[in-house]
Amino acid sequence: MICDVGCFLGTWPFRSLPSAGLSGLQAQARRNRVKCAAISAFEEVFWEDAFQATRWTVAEIARLKWAVPFQVVNPSFPGWQKDLERGVRDLGIKGIRLTPGYHRYSLRDAGVRMLADAAREYGLPVALHVRLQDERMHWIAKFPPVPPKEAAQFLEKTRDLRVAVLGFEFTEMAAVIEAVNDRADTWVDWSRMRAMLWGMDRLLERFPAERILYCSLWPLQTPSSVLNQLRIARVADDVRRQVLWRSGMRFLTGD
Amino acid sequence: MTSRKRAAVHVPGGKLIDLHTHLWAGREDDDARRMLEEADLLGAEYLAISHIAEPSRSPSPEQIRQGNNQVARWVKQARGRFRGMAMLNPTHGRGAVEELRRCHDKLGMRMVKLLVAVRCTDRRVFPIVELCIELKIPILQHAFNNAVGNGPNESRSEDVAALARRYPEARIVMAHIAGDYIRGVWTIRDIPNIWTDISGSYCEAGMVDTAVRELGAGRVVFGSDNGIAFNLGKIQDAHISDEEKACICYRNAKELLP
């Protein structure tokens, strides 16, 4: 049983994807036994009127009991507070997704502090994507990943929030070990952990299983690549359950 | 209970050859043991290994020789689980050709790995390729189309294409599907003497599907660059036939490096 905190509907603007959309999402969820997933849309990242994409995403997944809508918020864009308020009030948004590299803001910006305040007020978890696609593959435009130190500072300032830092490579995670392990409601994932021998074993030497959750980045990535790293890991079954299910559910619900 | 379940990771076709792995300088034994453990777990028949002397991008003749000896030692020790690839530095000129002769004749290596000492269009690469043609052995050429900038002397897919066009009798495997796989595949699709491996540290959906659609499954091989299970996921999730998956996992590599 899997809780996946990062899936996307819609169209990725830079290349074709072999599987996408609602039917693709359902098929991969069945195949991988995903019983709960936080869903957003690529259009929420790339459209200027992102809230229109939030609306149709929520409508699209309304009949999926296991789908949890996460709203992509750009705190550098005028009026984001109103969109978030409408998302929570009218659409039942259950979490916030941030993509600073694509929206070109720093986590040190005043808007991010205001967004953290809003997340506190609404009791929403924050999924911080330090990258989506590997930046070495962005052929037509550059989208720099979030610097690890900046993410660590963000975590220090949001100790009372549930925050998942998603998409760091293994070496980059060194900068957030202290910030993550030092508090209860912070997590990392291994979706962008570069190929390495026994990667999960090594990740679990750095972070306890309670601090690690699963993010597939479907449909951008092949979920089996991410899952295989855990499948071959020399860890107890209880650790697998923690990483694949309990950590994600704690992030999503606070329980 | 701690557990590792071999059945938990499905190998399409049931057989696997990894055509792209490394022993890194200073941690050769650790790398080899870890790789064999992962290979055992996944039932890989054998892995092609070469040495990497980084941080030097242009290793000295002594580093090259010692590295190839390390590989040969592990090939012997692992009893058939490793196949050695001769790591060469084309800037060594005649010395590189002599090292290839030594690796082939005395160490039993049947494949060459070229990294980033020079771009593969550099004329110093040509004598190595010509000897590979004579010996009938394939070349694994590092290649990466990096949107944030290539390293000095790092070949791009266009460089690999130029080399393959110059030497149509050579059999060249373009490593990492050249990073930006779409550009990589588009560059080589009309050049039948280039294969590509799917190794690399990213697992972008569509990589294997695109390669098979544009090149045919016969020109795609499994390589992991030291992350076997991770890279296997790219094939597992590809929307291609089981037959095509089996070709990539095993048959193509078996033909290139029996």
Structure commentary:
The complex is a heterodimer of chains A (255) and B (258). By secondary structure, chain A is of the alpha/beta class. Helices cover 42% and strands 15% of the residues of chain A. A 7-stranded parallel β-sheet of chain A has the order 1-2-3-4-5-6-7. In chain A, helix 8 links the parallel strand 6 and strand 7 (186-188). The longest helix of chain A has 17 residues, at 237-253. Chain A starts with a strand and ends with a helix. The model of chain A has no long low-confidence stretch (mean pLDDT 96). By secondary structure, chain B is of the alpha/beta class. Chain B has 9 helices and 10 strands. Chain B has a 6-stranded parallel β-sheet with strand order 5-6-7-8-9-10. In chain B, helix 6 links the parallel strand 8 (172-174) and strand 9 (194-197). Chain B starts with a strand and ends with a helix. At the A-B interface, helix 10 and strand 8 of A face strand 1, helix 1, helix 6 and helix 8 of B.
Question: Largest sheet of chain B at a glance?
Answer: 6 strands, parallel
Beta strands of chain A, count? 8
Tally of helical segments of chain B: 9
CATH architecture of chain A, by name, is Alpha-Beta Barrel
Terminal Cα span of chain B: 40 Å
What's the CATH class of chain A, please? Alpha Beta
The general outline of chain B is globular
Essential attributes:
heterodimer; A: 255 residues; alpha/beta; TIM Barrel; B: 258 residues; three-stranded parallel sheet; 9 helices
Structure summarized in a few sentences:
By secondary structure, chain A is of the alpha/beta class.
How would the blueprint of this fold be written?
The complex is a heterodimer of chains A (255) and B (258).
Chain A lengths: L1 E8 L11 H12 L1 E8 H5 L3 H11 L6 E6 L7 H12 L3 E4 L1 H4 L6 H13 L3 E4 L18 H10 L5 E4 L10 H5 L4 E3 L10 H8 L16 H9 L3 E2 H17 L2
Parallel strand pairs in A: 1-2, 2-3, 3-4, 4-5, 5-6, 6-7
Chain B lengths: L1 E2 L12 E9 L3 H15 L1 E9 L8 H17 L4 E3 L1 E3 L5 H12 L6 E3 L11 H10 L3 E3 L15 H10 L5 E3 L6 H8 L5 E4 L9 H9 L4 E2 L6 H9 L5 H15 L2
Parallel strand pairs in B: 2-3, 3-4, 5-6, 6-7, 7-8, 8-9, 9-10
Helix pairs in contact in B: 2-3, 3-4, 5-6, 6-7
